[in-house]
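To close the section, here is one more complete example, presented without commentary so you can practise reading it yourself. The ligand is adenosine-5'-triphosphate.
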Amino acid sequence: MNKNEDDYILQAKGLSKQFRGFYAVKGVDLRVRRHTIHALIGPNGAGKTTCFNLLTTFLKPTEGTIVFNGRHIEKSDPASVADSGLVRSFQISAVFSQMTVLENVRVALQRKTRWNYAFWRNQNVLHVLDDRARELLDMVGLTRWADAPAGDLSYGRKRVLELVTTIALEPELILLDEPMAGLGHEDIEPVMQMIQRVAKGRTVLMVEHNMKVIAELCDQVTVLQSGQVLAEGTYAQVSTDPRVIEAYVGGAHV
Ligand SMILES: Nc1ncnc2c1ncn2[C@@H]1O[C@H](COP(=O)(O)OP(=O)(O)OP(=O)(O)O)[C@@H](O)[C@H]1O
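Output:
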């Protein structure tokens, strides 16, 4: 892990988003250190999703700036932000059920290589992409299912596949929106391991409600409440912070 205190891949300053006079996010300062796993947590309605949408520029801020790898992105369009290496993982609906697991990864790789024209014109390109797709499936233990329709995968494996299609884009910073949502108990550990594996050499910012997962995975935690930063620190620090405990207990969300 890079221990350089000043090496922040992402820095948001004074980030705010107003919806018809109501601030969903207000004056948020967020700094994400390179090569760490950083969690964004908070009770329901705290502004986590809005923050994610601002950081990926799907929403434009009412106020504030976002610097990714030294470059202002708050006015950029989401596609160019993704191209520059800040990628949000898509939800399971992004997995094409009728296509095989391998084909799903290949399509993601093709999106990255932008060989669109050649892709459709020249079947050989598929084999070049196949090698890389198989490598990625191997990395996450999905090789056995390479030729199975993605729709046949268990929910947990679909989540892993969805992460692989994100990794295929070779992001420097990956935003994961509740990666454990809807997973059965038995799927949590494999998906956690997968996140740890893909985080190597990258940076991960995740919204997650499962505190055990956060405790185990995350180097740094930012707690939001009512659109503002309530606390920041390691899991050990924020989980014992009386203001954080109050925010969760107050919202009946222990
Ligand atoms: N497009 C919108 N228009 C109006 N209000 C919105 C909009 N999007 C979000 N909000 C409001 O902003 C606040 C923050 O919502 P947001 O979805 O960002 O919170 P969250 O922390 O992700 O919540 P949850 O954990 O429930 O997903 C909520 O009060 C929500 O109702």
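Once you have examined the tokens, check your reading against these statements. Residues 91-170 form one domain. Residues 19, 24, 42, 44-50 surround adenosine-5'-triphosphate (CB under 6 Å).
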